[in-house]
Design goal:
Elements lengths: L7 H5 L2 H8 L3 H13 L4 H18 L6 H9 L2 E6 L4 E6 L10 E2 L30 E2 L2 E3 L5 E3 L8 E2 L5 E5 L2 E5 L10 E5 L4 E6 L5 E4 L4 E5 L7 E12 L8 E5 L4 E4 L3 E6 L5 E8 L2 E4 L5 E4 L3 E6 L6 E4 L2 H4 L6 E8 H12 L2 E5 L6 E7 L4 H9 L4 E5 L2 E5 L2
Parallel strand pairs: 4-11, 9-11, 14-15, 24-27
Antiparallel strand pairs: 1-2, 3-25, 5-6, 5-10, 7-8, 8-9, 10-13, 11-12, 12-14, 13-14, 14-17, 15-16, 16-19, 17-18, 18-21, 19-20, 21-22, 23-25, 26-27
Helix pairs in contact: 2-3, 4-8
Protein name: FecR domain-containing protein
Pfam families: FecR, FecR_C
Keywords: Membrane, Transmembrane, Transmembrane helix
Length: 399
């Protein structure tokens, strides 16, 4: 490769470098890690290019297999200018002010870091010697007789429960088809996702469920009673099939019950989060506690129950942020560092350790869930978060 690489633009216009950033080619990854080791004087421009890639890629969604599209986005921001010192025409990259930082520091007043807008150059992030792949669709199914099934092992013929219910995988989703005697006893199944996993499910009534990482849903193989009750730990997004005579209910471990009728909503009820959040997308839901306290939500409203509280807080919801996980993204909006790292830890199945005091800062921005761990952390680096990866542990350092 004979091209000179002196500024970030030179790297960003090179297909091999883009494939390296996207993690598409092991040979490109090895090449660039070796190249920068042999050309340490280019590290500042190299690191600036990587950060700019993360910014543009995060703003545009998944571009990890679209090198040409990514290049066209960059070309839109390249222009000709006169170098007054040499009277030569030089190209320069016009960094977007609107997308200058995927994560922005929001504590103590908004302090935006803008590429190409400051004479101070932050220390470049180290190249990852270790990396962790993103999560993937994977789950375990516990049948009524106690049999555990890893869902990647289900054959084309699927499974059959003792009540006659057929269980199949269809385009990566688990689909239940009721085909038994309605008089038979109700059988419960439990779908569980590990850290680093997620899965989709079609319930016996046709309702659709997206189960986030480190979550579980217990449900009957047929809905035979006066209501359709399922039991959730963790987080799930529901699109409920409308059945006016048989309301749908989601029961949580802390006694909270979400009662719905033909609606789409998201419930986040992880044990390690500070609150249980129920967000209504469409329709109507009633969120109730065992003590009788309840609230009725309208579309785009969110009911928040802080841990240890007996009172719901109702507010307008950021729908895009709430369901970003279902759409393949992490969305942060003025979130503290512990909230950010809890989400990453669940998706990448890693542990997080803070070296020194936990930074009292808040962050906003977007990260693709298909990024590798080092790619995600490079994006966080633009907001001043220092880190190292040691096996399955992230060590976060205050700076």
């Amino acid at each position: 490769m004979n091209q000179d690489f002196n500024v970030a633009e030179d790297f960003l216009l090179n297909d091999s470098f883009l494939r390296y950033c996207m993690g598409l080619s092991q040979s490109d990854i090895q090449y660039w890690e070796q190249w920068i080791a042999e050309n340490p004087e280019k590290l500042a421009a190299f690191d600036r290019a990587r950060k700019t890639f993360d910014v543009v890629n995060g703003q545009q969604g998944r571009l990890d297999v679209e090198v040409n599209k990514f290049r066209s986005l960059l070309q839109d921001h390249i222009s000709q200018d006169a170098d007054v010192r040499t009277n030569k025409k030089v190209r320069y990259f016009r960094y977007w002010r609107a997308a200058a930082a995927v994560l922005v520091l929001a504590a103590g007043g908004a302090a935006w870091y803008q590429f190409g807008n400051s004479h101070r150059h932050p220390q470049p992030a180290p190249l990852a010697q270790h990396d962790v792949l993103p999560g993937a669709p994977k789950a375990r199914l516990l049948l009524g007789d106690g049999t555990e099934v890893q869902l990647d092992s289900i054959s084309g013929n699927g499974l059959k429960e003792k009540d006659g219910t057929r269980i199949n995988k269809d385009n990566g989703k688990l689909v239940y088809n009721v085909a038994g005697n309605s008089a038979t006893a109700v059988t419960y199944n439990t779908l569980s996702t590990p850290r680093g996993g997620e899965f989709q499910l079609v319930l016996p009534d046709g309702s659709k469920v997206w189960l986030n990482a480190a979550s579980s849903l217990r449900f009957p193989t047929k809905f035979a009673g006066p209501d359709r009750t399922v039991y959730l730990t963790g987080e799930a997004y529901f699109e409920v099939a409308q059945q006016a005579t048989q309301p749908f209910q989601v029961q949580l471990n802390n006694g909270v019950k979400v009662a719905v009728l033909g609606t789409a909503f998201n419930v986040m009820a992880y044990d390690d989060e500070k609150a249980v959040n129920t967000t209504l997308i469409t329709g109507k839901v009633k969120v109730a506690q065992q003590n009788g306290n309840s609230v009725l939500l309208a579309p785009s409203q969110q009911a928040i129950l802080p841990k240890g509280s007996q009172q719901f807080l109702v507010s307008e919801a950021d729908i895009d942020k709430t369901i970003a996980w279902k759409m393949g993204m992490f969305e942060f909006d003025d979130d503290d560092i512990t909230t950010v790292m809890r989400q990453l830890a669940r998706w990448y199945d890693v542990n997080v350790k803070f070296s020194g005091p936990v930074p009292d800062k808040h962050y906003s921005g977007s990260i693709r869930k298909q990024s590798t761990l080092s790619q995600a952390l490079r994006i966080l680096k633009t907001a001043g978060i220092q880190y190292t990866i040691e096996g399955k542990q992230i060590i976060v350092e205050a700076k």
